[in-house]
Write a structure and sequence with these properties.
Layout lengths: L5 H14 L2 E4 L3 E3 L2 E6 L2 E5 L2 E8 L2 E7 L4 E4 L3 E4 L2 E8 L13 E5 L6 E2 L12 E2 L7 E2 L12 E4 L5 E2 L12 E4 L5 E2 L11 E4 L6 E2 L8 E5 L3 H6 L8 E5 L3 E3 L3 E4 L3 E9 L4 E9 L5 E2 L1 E2 L2 E2 L1 E3 L8 E6 L5 E6 L12 E8 L6 E14 L4 E4 L2 E8 L14 H11 L9 H4 L9 H13 L19 E7 L2 E7 L6 E7 L4 E8 L7 E8 L2 E7 L12 E9 L2 E11 L5 E4 L2 E5 L2 H8 L4 E7 L5 E2 L6 E8 L4 E7 L1
Parallel strand pairs: 4-9, 7-10, 9-11, 10-12, 13-15, 14-16, 15-17, 16-18, 17-19, 18-20, 20-21, 23-35
Antiparallel strand pairs: 1-5, 2-3, 3-4, 5-6, 8-9, 22-24, 24-32, 25-31, 25-33, 26-32, 27-28, 29-32, 30-31, 33-34, 33-35, 36-37, 37-42, 38-41, 38-43, 39-42, 40-41, 43-44, 43-45, 46-47, 46-48, 48-49
């Protein structure tokens, strides 16, 4: 067996050693997945470890590892071993990622942070939003390089410089606001960014070699337009517009998926404005509500005489809004809500979505053309179902009950305040109860397929029905006590229903109905004071029917107890026969018996005050039915 040459063996051993990854840990401690280095009483956010790998040809790759993912909130202070440190910096490579990873989606940086290091967020491709705190005065080289999820960016007024390649290849960054204190934008800071709108608040143009594509609309202070057009680095922009103190603004909104929201747009103006145009950009899936071919956009009471507002689709997918007065009247006042847009939020989405107003042009009464900077609304959409207070996955009478319990300080569980807050005022009141009840009545006839039962069916509790003359009686036999119910009726074609009423058993409940069309009726009965249904058997609900006779289907029956728990009862069918035919058959026949019933279906010895149903039975078994009113 041959042995290796000693020199060759030494070379191979050396190569083996250098090709092995070397690791260095750089942090002092970790809290909640974030790593820190201590510097006196201050702490700097850092990475977990640094390691290098030999890739050949005397080339090493250095990587930086962190455990942070998803939404990360950096605290103002952090405590370790009984001592509290102020978080003042995000160090070099703190969130550096060697791949185009989507693991970090949001970062909250506190106002205690004064510096953000080189490569701090390098290649964090999933980072969709960055808020740079006003405590930071500069953005270092490569800090946000390759953050491909960014859609828009605001550089605060405290920043004075933006480093080399700071936002290079942020390949979705379309809207940029640059603060008034920025004096330097270094090489290729925004190269590879598909910017369509840049607003720079600095009166004196910053020195720059940071842009690559100059097709964006550039908005600058109106007194500096010519200066930007002639300053190196800015003079390549072909669309330069001056803005003044006339602007649009849109508030942030919180909504539910599938919701319809009305967003107010305000105008603050020092000029006397008679007309405007603006382009509304909605996220994918969001729609401007259209009723009978007309988009739902309306002017506020700031309009002058004869002001009109119109909307049409723009070629780039935006919605162009145009408003003017044929008599050239000005909008009233110089601030406040100007117009409203009604937007439908798509089903099944959640998160924060931007709605933009761009390309805004204002016209003064003396025909001066003015420009306004882009306005943004961040619409936060929750995946909670609006009205689903008990988080069952659907909206039923149980949600009405638990919301009433919450108002009465009875602490129902489970209960979701955000879902129950129907009018979005941050409070739960009887108004929300009414709105949820109306939502139960108005919702699509079929229940959501994902709705779960709050409790299983209770053995022995059942609902049934019978017809006495023209009156239909809905009966409940129950062991458990209930405080509310809902059910759906399906009438045969040609039958009508009227005079719905609750019996003495349910005298503390209130009754609501909704005719859904095609013979379908939804019925709710509940009590604001959460009283229970009386007794454990007998008729709860009566109504009269006319027209064609046939089978009445009763289903989607839900009864709710005082704890807000639902029980779903078995549906059934009521055979509504034609009493007029029985009367004709009975003519001239001997009477066998006469029985009296009230509208609750309870038998009486004789007619009483009010309406009494008289059932006459003849010797051949046939019956006739009539009413007596006293």
């Amino acid at each position: 067996m041959k042995t290796l040459n000693p020199i060759l063996r030494t070379i191979l051993l050396t190569l083996t050693l250098v090709s092995t990854a070397t690791t260095a840990f750089a942090y002092s401690f970790m809290v909640n997945g974030i790593y820190y280095i201590i510097n006196g009483d201050e702490a700097t956010v850092t990475y977990k470890r640094q390691y290098s790998e030999y890739v050949g040809n005397n080339i090493y790759h250095t990587y930086y590892e962190t455990d942070c993912s998803g939404d990360v909130i950096i605290p103002e202070t952090v405590t370790f071993n009984g001592k509290t440190y102020t978080v003042t910096a995000i160090g070099d490579y703190a969130f550096y990622n060697r791949y185009s990873s989507s693991s970090l989606t949001y970062i909250n940086i506190p106002n205690t942070v004064r510096t953000i290091g080189i490569n701090a967020f390098y290649n964090c491709a999933g980072l969709k939003e960055i808020t740079i705190p006003v405590s930071v005065t500069s953005i270092n080289d490569y800090t946000f390089y390759g953050c491909k999820g960014l859609l828009y960016l605001t550089v605060p007024n405290t920043i004075t410089s933006i480093g080399n390649y700071a936002f290079y290849n942020c390949s979705k960054l379309a809207t940029l606001f640059i603060g008034s204190s920025v004096t330097t934008i270094a090489s290729s800071a925004f190269s590879g960014c598909p910017l369509s709108s840049i607003t720079c608040y600095a009166i004196t143009p910053p020195s720059t070699d940071g842009f690559y594509d100059y097709s964006a609309n550039l908005y600058v202070p109106k007194e500096s337009v010519e200066l930007y057009r002639t300053t190196s680095g800015w003079n390549y922009f072909t669309n330069v517009y001056g803005f003044g103190n006339d602007s649009f603004s849109i508030p942030d909104e919180t909504s539910f998926h599938g919701d319809t929201i009305v967003i107010p747009v305000s105008m603050q103006n020092e000029s006397t404005i008679t007309a405007f145009q603006t382009d509304v950009y909605l996220p994918d899936g969001f729609e401007l509500v259209n009723v009978n071919g007309e988009y739902q956009v309306s002017l506020s009471d700031r309009k002058g005489r004869d002001h009109v507002i119109m909307v049409n689709d723009a070629p780039d997918g935006a919605l162009r809004v145009l408003s003017y007065s044929p008599t050239l009247k000005a909008f009233k006042n110089n601030e406040g809500e100007l117009f409203y847009i009604t937007i439908k939020v798509p089903e099944g989405v959640s998160g924060t979505f931007p709605i933009w107003l761009r390309n805004t042009i204002l016209t003064s009464t003396d025909e001066e053309e003015l420009y306004a900077i882009d306005a943004l609304s961040n619409v936060s959409v929750t995946n909670i179902i609006k009205g689903d207070a008990n988080m069952s996955g659907g909206i039923t009478i149980a949600d009405v009950v638990v919301t009433a319990k919450y108002i009465l300080f009875q602490n129902p569980e489970p209960f979701n305040l955000e879902a129950a807050d129907m009018n979005g005022d941050g409070k739960i009141t009887i108004t929300d109860v009414v709105k949820i009840a109306n939502l139960v009545l108005d919702q699509d006839y079929d229940e959501p397929t994902n709705m779960r039962m709050m409790t299983s069916n209770v053995v022995g509790d059942r609902m049934s029905g019978e017809v006495i003359g023209n009156t239909v009686c809905i009966n409940l036999d129950n062991d458990m006590e209930y405080t509310a119910l809902q059910l759906d009726l399906t009438l045969p074609e040609g039958m009508t229903a009227s005079d719905f009423a609750l019996t003495e058993r349910a005298s503390s409940l209130g009754l609501s109905m909704k005719d859904k069309g095609n013979g379908k009726i939804r019925v709710l009965a509940y009590t604001p004071n959460l009283k229970t249904i009386k007794g454990n058997e007998g008729t709860l609900l009566t109504f009269n029917v006319d027209g064609t006779r046939g089978d009445i289907k009763v289903d989607r029956i839900e009864v709710v107890n005082l704890n807000g728990e639902s029980t779903h009862l078995q549906g059934f069918t009521i055979a509504a026969i034609t009493p007029t035919a029985l009367k004709e058959m009975a003519t001239g026949k001997a009477i066998s018996s006469v029985n009296y019933f009230n509208l609750a279906g309870q038998q009486m010895t004789e007619p009483a005050s009010g309406v009494t149903i008289v059932v006459t039975t003849y010797s051949d078994g046939s019956r006739s039915t009539s009413k007596v009113v006293r």
